[in-house]
Structure prediction request, 801 residues.
Amino acid sequence: MAKERIWYVEDSENMDQICSRCRMCELICTFHHHGVGNPYRSRIRVVALGKGVDIPVTCLNCEDAPCVNICPTGAMHRPQPDSMVIVNPDVCIGCGMCVNACPVGAVILDPGEGTALKCDLCNGEPQCVKYCPAEVLKLSGSSQFSKHRMKGFARLLQAQTINTETGLK
Amino acid sequence: MNRFQGGYAGRILYVDLTDGTIDNRPLPREFAEKYIGGRGFSSRILLDEVPADVDPYSPRNVVVIASGALNGLPMPSASRLVTATKSPMTGALGDSNSGGYFAPELKYAGFDAIVVRGASKEPVYLFIKDGQAELRPAQHLWGCKVHESHQKIVAETNDEDTHVLVIGPAGENMVRYACVVTDKESVGGRCGIGAVLGSKRLKAIAVRGTRDVKIADPPRFKKVIDDYLVSIAGEAWTESLRRLGTPFLTEHRQTLGIWGAKNFQSGIVEGGEKISGEVFRKKFLVKPLGCMACFIRCRRYSAITAGDSPFYTKGPEYESIHALGAKPNVTDPETILRAHYLCDEYGMDEQSAGSAIAMAMELFERGLLKRDQTDGQELTFGNGEALLYFIDKIASRQGFGDLLAEGTKVMGEKLNAEYYAIHVKGLEVDAADPRKQETRALTYCVATRGACHLRGNPYIDEFIKPEEAEAYFGTAAVSDINSLEGKGKMVAWSEDWVTLSDLMGICKFAWYRSRDFSMLVKRGLDMVAEAYQAATGIPMTSREMYRCGERVYNVEKIFNLRQGFGRAADYPPERFFREPLPTGPAKGAVLNREHYDRLLNDYYEARGWSPESGVPTPEKLKELGLASDEIQ
Ligand code: SF4
Ligand code: SF4
Ligand code: SF4
Prediction:
């Protein structure tokens, strides 16, 4: 089975389904895991690039995960072949090697505990997905995501190359 | 140590700019329970610290920057920041409310509020990080516009998560209505807070925090969030705001004929369809934005990318289109957006700026201002070039801009044209023309910060059911929009209830626009009291919650009474009594003096204030836990 993770799925046809930088995903992620308000302990972060571009970033759940490979204690691990990479905080020594290795910055060290924090998919009920008001976060495998992208691209092709009335070029 | 179980950061930062001292004090528990947060903190602190003889620009004036009780938590739309001071516009209590990310960040940095006193000799900025604070030199930032100031400060803190409140050149030059801007896009516009910061030479406050805001009872808090979200989902008002932002109101105003166009000489804008919410969406919208934790996402992020001077800006709001479009009768959307962007960049309130220019246009057309007084400009209605020209001149206080920078009240006094200055207590009438609806007029005029449509909710009579009206206001007549009965009470209730949003730090758009009165009560009293308890662990009934709103409103009234704002200050501009609207759907609408007198009497009575003076009775003060000698 394809590995699942959180995808940022904006809808280019619908301006309201673009990340609007409300940071609810950050707030709810921390609230779910630690019961407090603090976006800086969140396992998803919204990166503001300016000119209206805001992109939520979280774990890619890499197949050959650098964070797992580099972890000296085995704290960073994947319990099942198709599951999410997660941290065992009892074993984690807070060395930050995973932070170093992750290609997208999806691992942070908890400012409180000092151990590694990363997306754990909230045990199958991802809270960021549930609370994102723009509905742009989706839990899915890569094939579903690529299908979504194909659909967007197909619409583009349709608009550019096909006469919509006759269906002919 | 934080003595609260949650909700509060538990500290207040006191900064004295005169001697540079910084004092980090615990937030007293009794103070927190009585005044809750945000505007409650700022109003109480100002009443205690700023006596009647203090000039707004004196170092003895104080600026308070406060987070609401629920800021920093995953509470829907809990993003709002309060900045407050004795206003140079009014001389009364002045506060300004803005969204964005600063209010939560202040909590993460360990503070519920900042109190700024004194004045620095040299320009400085305040940098706060995780419980520590320092003043840094800002000579190199003096003169910089908002974007540039912001970027330089973020670069100096070497941390992109830093959030910054700045003033622009308008604040430095003490344009009377200069504003504060956080993160280049969230504007605390009204009442001239930026001018007071300018007089203190405090260029900016940068804040960065990584601390938790605790929650006393997380499962209980989660339930409130979910209930709250259900309550705002699917409301037509929420949907409209998401699609068009506040500019959705443009059509509403035009249809009712209450635009306040041409300095309130007309209720409609000819060519109003050219500046509708749909037009701004289609032409300029990059995308909608949400403030911290916001589910409504009414903010517009707009751009003009073609031409010589492209720019990106947050906005426009309905108020931008009103003040820079309807009032000066400018119907070119690009000019309005550019004017809006310039006001934000210079750091001045677009509502007061547009009002000042619109008033000057009327005076010019009436021959009361001559071309040699207006820098040679043909200052007629609809002249967009002149609008842009004078926004520049106001910010730098050059030429005729120097007088425009004083706001309409002072302009009226200096030009002997007070009749054409459309303000209450010195703050210009915003939002809409109140001639058609007397409760709207009352709300504007009794508002403690001067004319303001956000202090109350005078539209309840449009949808409240007779049985609800009977239960809440003692008479079913409140549900009749043509009756005055019970309306004073309705307005008073709505003010106390709306005040609560400013104590919590929740946006008014997630607060007051249901067409279901029972829902308003449930959401804005019951659920909020519940959220407050779940977050802080402090017991709070809906009734006590309401009392907190009322207490804060009375504190503000006392502040203003001390400054000499009695009954006469609670009246609308003469124009609204004398001139019926000449055209449009509201043609003929005019305020009736007897009706207004009666409404004001009823309002004072409902509040427990003396009808002649507006002074709270000793019984009322006692009931609210306020001392009887606070008025002096
Ligand atoms: S909750 Fe959704 S819209 Fe809001 S910041 Fe996160 S991804 Fe963007
Ligand atoms: S934490 Fe980083 S390295 Fe590890 S699986 Fe996720 S994206 Fe890959
Ligand atoms: S799925 Fe859960 S853990 Fe992962 S980013 Fe979303 S809220 Fe955080």
